[in-house]
Amino acid sequence: MMASKEPLRLAGRDLTFSRGDRRVLDGASLGVASGEIVSLLGANGAGKTTLLRLLMGFLAPQGGDVRLGGESLRGLGRRQVAQKIAYVAQSHLAPFPYRVRDVVMLGRLPHIGLFNRPGQGDEDCVDHLLERLGLSPLAGRPYTEISGGERQLTLLGRALAQGARILVMDEPMSGLDYGHQMRLIGFLRDLAAEGCGILMSTHHPDHAHWVSSRIALLIDGRIEADGAPGDVLTPAAIRWLYGVDTVAVSASGRTAFLPL
Amino acid sequence: MPLPLLGAGLGAAALGALTIGRYPISLRDIIAFLAAAAHLSALPQARYDLLHNIIIEIRLPRILAAALVGAALSASGAAYQSVFRNPLVSPGLLGVLGGASFGAALALILGLGGLAAQGSAFLFGIAAVGLGVGVANLFGAASMITLVLGGMISGAFFTAALSILKYAADPYDQLPAIVYWLMGSLASVDLHQVLSIAPPILAGIGALVALGRIMDALAMGDDEARSLGVPVTLARYAIIAAATLISALCVSMAGMIGWVGLFVPHFARLLVGPRNAALLPAAALLGAIFLIGADGLARSAMRSEIPIGIITELLGIPAFLLVLRRARKSWA
Predict the structure, then answer these.
(1) Is B168 found in the same domain as B120?
(2) What's the pLDDT at B279?
(3) Does residue B61 lie within any of the structural domains?
(4) Dihedral in degrees, nearest 10, Cα atoms B211, B222, B232, B212
(5) Cβ-based contacts of A93 with chain B (< 8 Å)
(6) Residue B328: its pLDDT value, please?
(7) What are the tens digits of pLDDT across the range B231-254?
(8) Engineering a disulfide at B251: which of A167, B100, B217, B279 sits with its beta carbon 3.0 to 4.6 angstroms away?
């Protein structure tokens, strides 16, 4: 699916953003490069979604800048960005019963152009993705009538259909059952191995510790730590993030945090 | 693909509607007239003139007007529903109906003629949406929710202004004219008017169809549409502008014709699914068929004509209940 094998990096530096009197982000710096999985941890209201929205260019930062492959995001057109960065949102609205296949096809929009019809190449790409994500049997079903886990996979399919090298996900595991969480994690690891850069916010320290190449901690609008999971994610960090005492337990080369 | 079927249905509805009216005209008469008009066969001149008068001068303009108004209100309703991500939205959401009513009433009170009332209705319909959008922009970025609020405020303002006009109007002469206008009617349209209003309406519907894929993306949410490369604010304004233009044209020609823009898109969605590239043409065709039927009823149900706005409301309620029953499960 990846358009090119050249490394690509999305990076925000010293980003500030205020809403009214409240400073949501206060000089936050965060980046993701192709092949990486970066997990962003932070308490509710820490500014994770705002930071992701700034990095994708949905909001303009009040200070600092965002660069994609060395170019300022502001100078790039929306369609150009859409071919390089795909987004899986946290809360998705579904007022109309679009079919699973139609939703995935929407991901081809940046390639087709806003006023053109999909071509055979687009149809093939969508078929391939549906197959890969195990959604082929659901292709004709309204995505308002499938399970939350299947819908999340459908939205991942739409993001992959964009052929983007950077994938931004806002709490992709929220609302998924255990089986779907594990399937999603499996897909994310495969995608990273293929050269996709994944940046996701999450509330699951265990998941983050397991799949991430890097973990960043967002506390009070600043990135307070950013590094390898083993270095960053410790019981002390979890206490700082969430005010919860935990103990790290390791088995079979994995680490999990148990609340005390 | 049900679109050719709907197209055929529209042709059949139009033909059928040509036979409806006080003077009996059969399908055979219509065919004979068309053959004579194409110089394929001959009719006695008096008969030909009579048929020409009834078919071309009297019935055809109404049928064309009904088709145009039905198509435009349904297409703009479908577009509004996508843009506002709400299946219960109708083209009047941003205040176009309130503004147009006020505009028409104002012209009638000033003693101006029908054409001035139409122009005034059109302008105030556009102005009301402009006011709604302007109010929305006072609250910062024109998001969906601020647009809805702006539309409510604008609509309320023009409804109040309309009440003032009604209160001030001469109760023997002007007030009935206003009330009748508000009930909606196609009785006064002539062929020239229909032909002059057709190009902008068809262009507006065409523009909405061309924006269909963008509407699909907008239906996913603003941020998601942005992530798909859609310039969200610009796209939303473009769609609102096209939908407002054609609904203001309709209201100015035909008065208040409610419900069509709300429930016809639902029917169309049940037939062809929610993808706007298919939904908008289907809604337009279905709306045209429905309004031709409603106008046929308006002309023939009673000895004197019933305002078509009343017919669409009466028919619209059961139709909407029917659709709600079918559509309910997809909202869960």
Answers:
(1) yes
(2) 96
(3) no
(4) 0
(5) 85, 219-221
(6) 62
(7) 999 999 999 999 999 999 998 888
(8) B100
Claim to verify: residue B9 and residue B151 sit in the same structural domain? no
3-state secondary structure of A142: strand
Cβ–Cβ below 8 Å for B330 and A97: yes
- List of chain B residues whose C-beta atoms are within 8 Å of the C-beta of residue A95: 85-87, 219, 331
**What is the SS3 assignment for A28?**
strand
Distances (CA, A) of A172 to A74, A148, A180, A182, A201: 27, 11, 10, 11, 8
Would you say the ipTM is above 0.90? yes
Rg of the Cα atoms in chain B: 21
Q: Do A96 and B87 touch (CB under 8 A)?
A: yes
Task: Give the tens place of pLDDT for each residue, B257-292.
Answer: 888 998 899 889 989 999 999 999 999 999 999 999
Nearest by CB: B228 against A92, A102, A110:
A110
Domains and CATH numbers, chain A: 9-259 (3.40.50.300)
Average pLDDT over residues A170-185: 90
Q: Same structural domain for residues B46 and B114?
A: no
Chain B positions touching A85 (Cβ under 8 A) are 227
Q: In this model, does residue B311 exceed pLDDT 50? A: yes
Q: Do B217 and A92 touch (CB under 8 A)?
A: no
Residues B104 and B228 in one domain: yes
| Residue that the structure tokens 């894929």 belong to | B213
Task: Give the rounded percent of residues in chain B with a pLDDT score beyond 90.
Answer: 57
Say yes or no: B114 and B230 in one domain.
Answer: yes
- What is the sign, positive or negative, of the torsion defined by CA atoms of B237, B239, B244, B249? positive
Contacts of A79 in chain B (CB under 8 A): 229
For B210, the domain range is 66-327
pTM listed for this prediction = 0.90
Between B330 and B196, the higher pLDDT residue? B196
Which of A75-79, A155-159, B314-318 shows the lowest mean pLDDT across its residues? Answer: B314-318
The answer to whether A98 contacts B274, with C-beta atoms less than 8 Å apart, is yes
B52 shares a domain with B142: no
Inter-chain contact B217–A109, Cβ cutoff 8 Å? yes
A82 with B82: Cβ contact below 8 A? no
